[in-house]
Design goal:
30% of the residues are buried. The chain has 98 residues and is α+β, with helices and mostly antiparallel strands.
Length: 98
């Protein structure tokens, strides 16, 4: 919640669904893209750049947040390429509705 607030990202509006996964659960991530409005991927010791890229390919808007409210805080909207691996990081992805 703190990282979403810091990044200015709504986690859900109305009856939208939210799925929370750990960074190395790529299979779960792929399943979640079939129904979730928001996907949160925790524990950024995984390859968060790959996670962000996969989610963009499934038409999600992506925000990467690291160490919110701590020294070394970093927030990147629509990141591309490699992202810092940090246990205290996450990706918040919101489905883009056209």
């Amino acid at each position: 919640m703190a990282c979403a607030a810091r990044a200015g990202v709504n986690l859900a509006v109305g009856d939208e669904s939210i799925v929370i996964l750990v960074g190395d659960d790529i299979e779960g991530l792929m399943r979640a893209t079939g129904f979730a409005d928001t996907i949160i991927v925790l524990k950024g010791s995984a390859d968060m750049g790959r996670v962000a890229s996969l989610l963009r390919n499934y038409e999600y808007s992506v925000t990467y947040a690291r160490r919110c409210y701590m020294d070394g805080e970093l927030i990147i909207n629509e990141p591309s390429g490699e992202l810092p691996r940090d246990y205290f990081s996450l990706v918040i992805a919101r489905r883009i509705y056209k």
